[in-house]
Amino acid sequence: MRTFKPQSLFPRVPGGGGGGGPPPPPHNRSKWPYAGPLLTSIEVGCAQIDGTSAAYRDLLTIRTTEPVFSLATADEVQSKLSFPLSGKDETPGVITMELGDLVVVLNATPQRQEQTVADLAGKAYALHPVQAAGADPVVKTSSYAEDSGTFAVPGRTVGIFSRVGR
């Protein structure tokens, strides 16, 4: 009789530190049959971990240097934050928000998505300078078409666009 070894489905990531093996069984054992193949179908090593860490640091830099991410009151947030494509106009798996002079597109889908915010047509935006000069080569392929107000962001990526000349 063959014994199931969950560690064979959930190999330790070299350089990943901690956590080798499967998620703890009490709440996760029922997920092992489908989670194992999903997690072992990707290649993760030091380069991917370092790249993800660097891209996350880019996001933290934007978070700490853009004053609009530090609004002090609910009234300030409500006056600066909107979700122009929510409701019937939203794309499943994508959140588009305007936050002051920034537009943030969170694309959780596997495909590149285009989000057209008609009210922004004719206004100049560009990928935030931190991301444009940053560590993530994928986010650098994000784009904005000024004539239509269309933001394009690759799959599983957060693109932050800043108003040009603000």
Task: Provide a descriptive summary of the structure in words.
This protein is of the alpha+beta class and 166 residues long. The protein contains six helices and eight strands, in the order αααααβββββαβββ. It has helices spanning 6-9, 25-28, 32-40, 46-65, 74-80, 129-132, and strands spanning 81-82, 94-99, 102-107, 113-116, 125-127, 143-145, 150-153, 157-163. Strands 1-2-3-8-5 form a five-stranded antiparallel sheet. The protein is globular. The termini are far apart. Mean pLDDT is 86; it is low at 1-8.
The average pLDDT is 86
Globally, the shape reads globular
**Which class best fits the helix and strand makeup?**
alpha+beta
Q: How would you classify the quaternary structure? A: single chain
In whole angstroms, the N-to-C terminal distance is 69 Å
Q: Estimate the helix proportion, in percent.
A: 25-40%
Question: Can you tell me the residue ranges where pLDDT is under 50 for at least 5 consecutive residues?
Answer: 1-8
- Order of strands across the biggest sheet? 1-2-3-8-5
